Amino acid sequence: MNAKNAAPETLEAVFLRDRARLLGFLARAGAGAEAEDLMQEAWLRIESLYGREAPDQPLSYLYRLLHNLMLDRRRRESRSARRDTEWADISGGAVPGISEEPDNDRRIIAEEEVRAVHAAVTALGEPTATIFRRHRIDGIVQRRIAEELGLGVSTVEKHLRRAYAALIDWRSSRDEA
Amino acid sequence: MTDANNRPQHEALDWVIRLRHADAADWAAFDAWLDADSAHADAYWPLAAADADLAAALAQPLPDAEVITLDTGRRRQWLIAALLPIAASVALVVGLWWTLAPGALPHADIVFETGAGETREASLPDGTRVALNGDTRLVLEGANPRKVRLDRGEARFVVVHRAEAPFVVSAGSAQLHDIGTVFDVVRDGKTVRVAVAEGAVLYREDAASLQLNPGDSLTRDANGTIRTARIAVMDVAAWRDRRLAYDQAPLELVAADLARATGVPVTLDPGWPDGASAAASISARNKRR
User: Fold this and answer.
1) Same domain for B178 and B262?
2) What are the CB-based long-range contacts (under 8 Å, 24+) for B227-231?
3) What residue of B is the nearest CA neighbor of A66?
4) Mutation site for A-interface testing, chosen from B51, B60, B64, B227 by largest number of A Cβ within 10 Å
5) Which of A29, A65, B36, B75 could be a cystine partner for B207, CB 3.0 to 4.6 Å?
6) Each residue's pLDDT tens digit in chain B (289 positions)?
7) Per the domain annotation, does B276 fall within a domain?
8) In B, residues 50-69, which contact A (CB 8 Å cutoff)?
9) Where is B203: in which H helix or E strand?
């Protein structure tokens, strides 16, 4: 790939060069007939960033962009499938500089739901709750969380697994209810 | 979901966590994992969706706070119209006073100022005690000893209450009227935070007013939106004990407080998600001695 210290390649260049690989990724991720469409959507996103500073790691940026576009579609589909509380469509943050298209029908999350999620995190107990918040909300890497809390990285990892598993379980059970 | 015979689920969860901070190699490994078994994608996406839903909800502020939007735009216009004649006559009186009393210079303002990392305590002429946190500028408006203006930074007041002459702190467009009180005020540009330890404070801005009682805190953001929340009375002006306590505070705010208290510039790590309304529970103890 590009030499160290050289200016990062542009997203466009990497997109075109690794097109086959990225399209394959979407197929393997189960995008099916939507794969080409997602590639097109990603390209439009990239174009709209023209003139901005290129991300340090263009390829992982593109992977994440495609991943998030696909995730957004799946979430929208399952949302319209269930007539449940509308969750705000804020999957951004994962791709710096790209704000996810806001849903027009997006509503403010029911206060009770938000409170319930916060309570579910708190119910994890400490230090699990703090570790989860640092990782998922503040976007801190595990190594740094370990340093901050004076814990081993493997301990942080263990807490994270437990937190994600419990919360995702909790979230899924609410959907089924 | 985590039982051992459900391996795709197990691995999918690991990917949800790992992909938060993935480089190109991680993504390639994820791609290879998806390729290994078509069941992998089926296991992964529901977890990823649940995770994204959780994150979306967590990005919302905890709604134990009552949100009051100061919709005073129209009322203010009305108020200005009503006050204009009064203001004109006041100006006239002041003008007259100036010409009639040419020797009477206005009292000079008294300025209390601290550098970042420095704290200071002072007594005001009326006996009110004030503690200034770092990087703070407080102006005692000379003509009225019961009126102070917080230009920036943070101050804790222990007010000597006088019913006939309320103690008033102005911070930007907000005014705080004490009702016999210990309270803390932070001003950062247009953002104002107030927390009350004892007594009560009347928060006023334009036509709106709100009474804050012990354990009440109020944040007015730069857009004029006001949120109230509860705070442990012990945590009001905790900076005086070299302690900073937060519950679900935006990280920008924490960074600003740390810089003020320590004199060390604090900036947010650019690696943190862009514009995330980061809410974290941080309790820091500054053991500097």
Assistant:
1) yes
2) B227/B61, B227/B65, B227/B66, B227/B67, B227/B68, B228/B65, B228/B66, B228/B68, B229/B64, B229/B65, B230/B64, B231/B195
3) B27
4) B60
5) B75
6) 445 458 888 899 999 999 988 899 999 999 999 999 989 999 999 999 888 888 888 877 655 443 333 333 333 444 444 455 455 444 444 433 333 333 334 456 778 888 887 888 877 777 788 888 888 898 887 667 788 899 998 898 888 777 778 888 988 888 888 876 788 888 888 888 888 888 788 888 877 778 888 888 888 888 888 888 888 777 777 777 767 766 666 677 777 777 777 777 777 666 655 444 444 434 444 444 3
7) yes
8) 50-64
9) strand B201-205
- CB contact (8 A) between residue B58 and residue A136: yes
Domain boundaries, position B155: 66-70+107-285
Contact A141 B27 (CB under 8 A): no
Please identify, in words, the CATH class of the domain defined by A111-176: mainly alpha
Q: Scan for tokens 């200016």, then name that residue.
A: A7
The verdict on B279 touching A (C-beta cutoff 8 Å) is: yes
Same domain flag for B194 and B259: yes
Query: Looking at CA atoms only, how far is residue B140 from chain A in angstroms?
Result: 40
- Cβ atoms of A52 and A97 closer than 8 Å: yes
Query: Residues B131, B114: contact at Cβ < 8 Å?
Result: no
For residue A71, the chain B residues in CB contact (below 8 A) are 45, 48-49, 52
Nearest CA in chain A to B33: A28
